[in-house]
Amino acid sequence: MKYIEIDGRKIGPDYPPYIIAELSANHNGDLNRALQIIELAKAAGADAIKLQTYTHKTITLDCDTDEFQIKGGLWDGQSLYQLYQQAHMPWEWHQPLFEKAKQVGITIFSSPFDFTAVDLLEELDAPAYKIASFELVDHGLIARVAQTGKPMIMSTGMANELEIKEAIDVAYENGCEQLVILHCVSGYPAPAAQYNLRTIADMAQRFEVLTGLSDHTIDNATAVASVVLGANVIEKHVTLDRSAGGPDDSFSIEPDELKRLCQDAKTAWQALGQVNYHKTDAELGNIKFRRSLYVVKKIKQGEVLTNDNIKSIRPGFGLAPKYLNQVIGQVALTDIGYGTALNWSHISTSTVPE
Predict the structure, then answer these.
(1) How confident is the model at residue 353 (pLDDT cuts 50, 70, 90)?
(2) Which helix (H) or strand (E) holds 260?
(3) SS3 17
(4) With pLDDT > 70 as the criterion, what percentage of the chain qualifies?
(5) Which of 163, 153, 100 is nearest to 130 (CA)?
């Protein structure tokens, strides 16, 4: 697969990395805040804004047993029901958010967490779908999304090789024709040292799909580095203010950081270029700073070239210094002036090295 296409934007090795600004729970219960994040994502240069579509009632149970309680980490002391009640994106917000994205000119899609979420997003004509890491083992949901025929992006946090392969197979078997899988570490935040970015290239080869990165580190270094290893998509949580206290704020990047990510990821992709062993345009003007063989004393026709009248100096317009021993002892065919760049036409040699 050379590329996929979302909303007219081609995604693949021959195109700049596709940057997704993950809004997630960073609306903090305020629709205006969510609308502002869409605006900042566009202004920063992101290609897409992504939502999460679920309700606390569809994703978990209001249950007091120990299994439903969160212990440790960012959300310590809450139940799953309480967390998702706080974090979910109200369904009535989806239409104004889609309209806002259209108004400012940024692609918008979402991660659905159940069939009713897919139905809502289909009504809004979402151009693509994301399967979250935690849902990668939900083959029914993957199948339902694949059946829409829209491009799919699937995160692989916590998944082993078999689980990734099974998810890909389910997507393809149910009609998905455009797929990207994202390497991910499902920690919030996740230490860069645990990201094992070499996995990105391995996944591309092993599963024969386009790959990318869902990045939960707290800066941009990991995301930019992933481009060098073949990431075609970068997803990053984005907030207005990392200290705002929302469920996802603390591991999200702020507007200026998103802008730098968009710029630096593109620069990293441009720097990859092609395999090249020839001088680049930027180097052509610096030939003068290389060494080459020059006449440092006037030489008359018939005079022998010696270490006294030929030297390796800058600039680099003469014969390469490696030929010094070959030209010493040769006879000048013509008068050669002081400061002349030596070339093969100056000397009496029947063999001109390539």
Answers:
(1) low
(2) helix 255-272
(3) coil
(4) 98
(5) 153
Assign residue 31 the CATH number of its domain: 3.20.20.70
Q: Round to whole Å and give the CA distance between 232 and 212.
A: 5
| DSSP structure string for 288-333 | GGS-EEEE-S-B-TTPBP-TTTEEEESSS-SS-GGGHHHHTT-BBS
DSSP string, 118-179: HHHHHHTT-S-EEE-GGGTT-HHHHHHHHTTT--EEEE-TT--HHHHHHHHHHHHHTT---E
- Give the length of the chain: 354
Q: Give DSSP secondary structure letters for 61-120.
A: ----SGGGB--SSTTTT-BHHHHHHHH---GGGHHHHHHHHHHHT-EEEEEE-SHHHHHH
Residue 248 lies in a domain: yes
Instruction: For strands 233-237 and 18-22, give the pairing.
Output: parallel
Residue 232 CA, distance from chain mean position: 5
Q: Which residue has the tokens 């994202």?
A: 182
Residue 169 in domain: yes
Residue 160: alpha-carbon gap to chain centroid: 22
β-sheet bridge partners, residue 238? 253
**Same domain (yes/no): 126, 208:** yes
pLDDT tens digits for range 176-220? 999 999 999 999 899 999 999 999 999 999 999 999 999 999 999
CB atoms near residue 256 (< 10 Å): 10
For strands 48-53 and 210-215, give the pairing. Answer: unpaired
Q: Output DSSP code: residue 16.
A: P
Confidence class of residue 350 from pLDDT cuts 50, 70 and 90? Answer: low
Q: Which residues pair with 210 in a beta bridge?
A: 180
* Cα distance between residue 253 and residue 222, in whole Å: 13
Q: What is the CATH number of the domain that holds 337?
A: 3.90.1210.10
Distance in angstroms (rounded) separating the CA atoms of residues 204 and 210: 6
